[in-house]
Amino acid sequence: MNRKWMTTSGFLVLLLSACGGGNGSTSNGDQITLRYAGWNLGSAEQNNIERQMLAAYEVLNPNVNIEIIERPFKIDEETGEEVSATWDEFFATQAAIDQLPDVYMIYNLAGFTAQGWTEEVTDLFMADADYASIPDDIKASAAFNDRYFAIPQTLFYFGFFINRTAINRVGPRAVMPTYGMTYEELMDAAESNSKAPIQGGDGIIGISGLNNLVNWLPAQLDPDLGWFTFNEDTGYHLDSPAFATAVTEQLKYYGPGKATYGNYVLDALDPARYADYFGASANIFETGNQSIRFEGSYAMRDWHTRSLDANDPLYGADIDFIGTPSWNVEGVGNVNKIPVVVDYLAVGKGTDHREAAYDLSRWMGFSTEGYAKRLELAAADPVRAALNFTPMIPQEDLVEGFFNLYPNMTEFKKIVEEHQDFILESLGKNVPGYWNSRANAPFDTVVIDGTEVNRTVGQAIDDITAGRLTLADALQKGLNTIVNEQWQTAKEALDTYLNSLA
């Protein structure tokens, strides 16, 4: 089976076969301790699959002790409640006292690398027996100037989930969405798969998550664009016709005329009608009151687990994942580039156990033997050790093992086994300055109710898609220039740091 991964840099072939094996066991040698930090560990009492994987590594490597570094809590000054520290706060504190974990999940690879918090692992990664079987674009996403500062850990997909159980409750007019259907067909299905409340609280809404159109739709219209119009060579293209088309489409569901779609688009439904439609439900997809929802594929683990619980509103729900729909492009045909998101592990800069830390990261990440262990744990403990991502190396037995855990997800299996074209969503992890470009950078000053308010880029994008600011006016004010300046500034800082290592 061949698959093409498409990012802004082009196509590549994904190899099916995997060699297996890594840098060897660390079972020989002196006793060592590796400090590990991750945002997906849950609590010790929950003992989820991540903690079980760490324990399994210790069994295989009796000379290694893994010390889990729990994220600290702090007191919210406004509410007085105890909340988790942000990942930035946590690592800034660890770096300040020269106590970076040996291995840690990293959400801002570009930023953390520029600050000197990541160990370069190019030699270890490229010598890994599984290296050749990882998709080239996934490998490249962990590198800067062909130097690796992180290890791909998990691969997720973004797109639309469907709840067949809810859809079937609509009645004879229901339309079952499938992978590969066009955007127009998806929206028609969303309308057909909605039902007004009869007894109060038993309504079904068709779809939600259309606020992401400006992120993934431009890439369907222009082959040179990725998520949010980004191209790794030329930056952002918010002045492109593709972005303008996406804005126009999203504006339908969020702008002044959105009430037209309120009977089947959750985002357009008048909040005053929520109680009549859904009762007191906080998350209506999880109570069976929604047919289609945009989400990352990581959500399937919790939903599947809950569907097995007789006391849960999702009990018995038949949930599947269809990705993003195709888009009819004039002169081209249907284009369907599904977004993917990658999580990464980094080895802490200056670790005393570089090779052992790398070996642990590959076990927790991309390796075939690590994933095989995950399947074993998930089969033995299907609730606490539920698995929520497909193998990064699509070895046939690993793919089959995953879908044996999720037999209802027949459409998702087609994506994993058959789909060709993808774009990388996780730009916040590996594109310098992404969050400033996408959300945080200052844009302009506006007067609201007689008061001057500073508006960020993210707020400007929201205003554009809500009809409070035209795209033309935003571009005239320098929107595209501002976002690209943020990228260039951060990229130059990263390049300066990388050159200092040469």
Give the SSE map.
Blueprint: E1 32-37, H1 49-60, E2 64-68, E3 73-75, E4 82-84, H2 87-96, E5 103-106, H3 109-114, H4 122-126, H5 136-140, E6 143-144, E7 147-148, E8 151-163, H6 164-170, H7 183-192, E9 205-208, H8 213-221, H9 241-254, H10 274-278, E10 290-296, H11 300-307, E11 319-323, E12 327-329, E13 333-335, E14 338-347, H12 354-364, H13 368-380, H14 396-405, H15 410-418, E15 422-424, H16 427-430, H17 434-440, E16 442-448, E17 451-456, H18 457-466, H19 471-476, H20 479-501
Helix pairs in contact: 1-13, 8-9, 13-14, 17-18, 17-20
Number of domains: 3
Morphology? globular
Termini separation comes to: 39 Å
The mean pLDDT is 89
In CATH, the architecture of the largest domain is: 3-Layer(aba) Sandwich
CATH topology of the largest domain: D-Maltodextrin-Binding Protein, domain 2
Number of strands: 17
Brief overview:
With 502 residues, this protein is α/β, with parallel strands linked by helices.
Walk me through the structure.
- Strands 1, 2, 5, 8, 9, 10, 11, 14 and 15 form a nine-stranded mixed beta sheet that branches.
- This protein is 37% helix and 17% strand.
- With 502 residues, the chain is of the alpha/beta class.
- The two termini are 39 Å apart.
- The chain has helices at 49-60, 87-96, 109-114, 122-126, 136-140, 164-170, 183-192, 213-221, 241-254, 274-278, 300-307, 354-364, 368-380, 396-405, 410-418, 427-430, 434-440, 457-466, 471-476, 479-501; strands at residues 32-37, 64-68, 73-75, 82-84, 103-106, 143-144, 147-148, 151-163, 205-208, 290-296, 319-323, 327-329, 333-335, 338-347, 422-424, 442-448, 451-456.
- A hairpin with a 3-residue loop joins β12 (327-329) and β13 (333-335).
- It folds into three domains: 32-157 and 342-426, Periplasmic binding protein-like II (D-Maltodextrin-Binding Protein, domain 2, 3-Layer(aba) Sandwich); 158-338, D-Maltodextrin-Binding Protein, domain 2 (3-Layer(aba) Sandwich), CATH 3.40.190; 432-501, no CATH class.
